Amino acid sequence: MSDTTHTGPMLAADGSPLKRSLERALRRxxxxxxxxxxxxxxxxxVTFIAPIADMLFRSVExxxxxxxxxxxxxxxxxxxxxLGELPDEAVFAAMAADLQEAAKAKIxxxxxxxxxxxTPGISSLFRKSGRQxxxxxxxxxxxxxxxxxxxxxxxxxxxxxxxIQVYSPKYTNGYFLNAVDLEKTASxxxxxxxxxxxxxxxxLRTFAMSIGITLSCLMLGYPVAWLLSNLPSRSSNLxxxxxxxxxxxxxLVRTSAxxxxxxxxxxxxxxxxxxxxxxxxxxxxxxxxxxxxxLAMTHILLPFMILPLFSVMKTIPPSYLRAxxxxxxxxxxxxxRVYFPQSVPGIGAGSILVFILAVGYYITPELxxxxxxxxxxxxxxFHISSxxxxxxxxxxxxxxxxxxxxxxxxxxxxxxxxNVKLG
Amino acid sequence: MTKQxxxxxxxxDRVQKSYDGETLVVKDLNLSIGKGEFLTMLGPSGSGKTxxxxxxxxxxxxxxxxxLLDGNPINNIPPHKRGIGMVFQNYALFPHMTVAENxxxxxxxxNMDKSERExxxxxxxxxxxxxxxxxxxxSQLSGGQxxxxxxxxxxxxxxxxxxxxxxxxxxxxxxxxxxxxxxxRIADNLGITVVYVTHDQTEALTMSDRVAVFDDGRIQQLxxxxxxxxxxxxxxxxxxxxxxxxLEGVVQEIRNGVALVRLDDGKIIEAKPVNVSSxxxxxxxxxxxxxxxxxxxxxxxxxxxxxxxxLEFIYMGDIFRTRxxxxxxxxxxxxxxxxxxxxxxxxxxxxxxxxxxxxxRALDA
Lengths: 423, 365
Known about the structure:
Helix content of chain A is about 65%, strand content about 0%. Chain A is built from 19 helices and 2 strands. In chain A, helix 10 (about 200-230) packs parallel to helix 14 (about 290-315). Chain B is an alpha+beta fold. The longest helix of chain B is centred in the middle third of the chain and has 18 residues, at about 175-190.
């Protein structure tokens, strides 16, 4: 039987399918390889994948309302807020019972804070009424509509009950809506008041400034990378050390150095005033604004542009440029038609690296950005550590992550991620 | 300037080149290349041949002296205005362009219109028998195919002068031999002038009209291949071109165009004095392995013979290669044709060897 006439799967010498024998032969090798990477895999799962998954979950999770106020959630189901009337006594009685139980367990303030993100003022309702709830006799003290409103006027407001009803499901898209300046109301999704809209602006500003930083890194980094790959090795090694030098200094030191240089009483302004280019009472504002952030971050992220560019450029032999010139191309044409297209993978790799790093940057915008030059990451940090609205922080982070993944996908389609080399 | 220089297409006039200001890589180069000539620069690496080519192409500047192309000095003309075609060692085909785009590139930068470009590209590809590969990328071609495309690209804009920098270096032996003939045929058909750089002497001998042998920044000999092989002017050329046997000795007497050389072991042989002038000078006597004769019937009457011991016999198919000990030299090689009547020498055998005096050249030591 020859190979050409054989139509079924290839068979090994013992008659079993060749594919299966090959798999069996490689199984041991694969298991050993898996064992070798297992520590790293577990480490990454625990410290990287799991927190991200948890964060993504937090951005939609809303169990606290239905868990703390189970009776109220059920009773509110049939209430129609569009009629413009408060819910009936059954709802108030359910709320009183839930409040009493929650107060006993000391968790009533938590649900208060949760709902306070949506409608300010609810937090104090829960806190103050919760304090009195232990004295209520659920059998005799009714009707609770009066009891609750007497304890806190807020219970008589339609908005409070609307908010509780809207946020009673276990999962909500409310955080994501908030993250894009929308809000969830009883009558559907509507844009927030104009004076409360900040996130879209922040996202746009973050992306615009990151693009600016990426472009300025490219403009400054391309010639340096070209020099690095074309100078004789002694000079290029020295240049490489200069490029890598910033990595040996703390990020905080570098950012603080920019503060010293750029502030109004700083080195640059002093020099300009001394030379006479700038009047003493009209010193340039170069920090605590977008200019300061772009400048400092371009400096900090520049190596991340130069290194991928260099790694691509050093693989382009100088004979290509010579060949182009021998074929009649001027210096510019030879560069633009022959050298530049071959350096595009480096530009892509450097740009995507710098852009992704810039979009999520936190420390530098925080220190030199002021109010006009901060990024979405600074807002996320604010919600994580100050306002404690983790759900909103998670939603903002998820949007950022989604955008970066989308960018990565687009890059892969356009340039091919295989072309990204870092050394 | 001599009469010959005025006819020449390419002239190197007292050209020197130094990279570091301390040593000269090219020392006082004078060379004129005629129109339509196929000239090869041959030499070991570091001999200055590639530097000469790069100066001609315009990628290096001459430290001193003039380079003339068709009578005009080109020292200050940038490479892209010289109109010289060039084939590079690693072909330097642009990897982001297809074969056809590669060929079209030199025509585009000359602002040729599309239909004319396409016609020329097609003709050039036909010439190297690569017509059906126009749409491929260079990385999808084999080494030999890439080499053909590189050749076509250097020729497509119809330069009168084409430079080739070890173009066949990356090919295997069989393909290399085939491409040698191919390049020679195309060059002859088009009537272009070719300056070809190689360190492979077979390539130089088979392809060239004239060969310039480079060593130490100078041309050691400039001659047609047969003259170079049969009449080397000095011992470097004799050693570098082809296989060569050398015997050391002292010139005893030069008379009637024949030098008597006393070898270091006291034996006397006759040789043709090439660059020895007076008795008492040390000399290196050079004899080609195929010109050595051990069959007494084929030697001249009264020819000087030397006794030799057979050390090794190597069967090489078309020829036999025998290593001998002659006058203290244990690497004396003779080559004999594998003919039916040819005797196969046995190791240990003692034979008498001889040669015609004109095949034995007394060169500088």
